[in-house]
Amino acid sequence: MSQERKRFDTRLRQALALLETKGLGRSNYAPPLFRLLWKFGATVPPQMASFAFNGLLMGGFFGVFWGLLMWLLLWGGQGLPLAIGAMVAAFAGALFGLSMAWYMRHSARKRAIPKWRDFIPET
């Protein structure tokens, strides 16, 4: 494991400990999508990420997977044009992403949680 990865893992553990002390539930500060990405060193806790990052990540995943599920279960059998289904999924993903990004930013401000770039872990 590289030094950079070890530093990230240490910083992430300390950030998660901070979030736990702020009264957040584990499912809130460590949702499954983020836990999966942490294994690859790919992202930061959602309350410490930027509004745009949270919106794009959460909205993108939601839009793609919800759109595929709707297409397989409903729209494909109804003969809905693919372009219409893609636009609806993109709109739903955008709404979900904006809602989740707002919630994460609101939660962070309410609990005085620093952004990742401002977070200085104990050494």
UniProtKB/TrEMBL annotation:
InterPro entries: DUF6404
Record-given protein name: Transmembrane protein
Domain of life: Bacteria
Organism in which the protein naturally occurs: Pseudoxanthomonas wuyuanensis
Annotated transmembrane regions: 51-74, 80-103
Claim: Membrane is one of the keywords in the record: yes
UniProtKB keywords: Membrane, Transmembrane, Transmembrane helix
Pfam families per UniProt: DUF6404
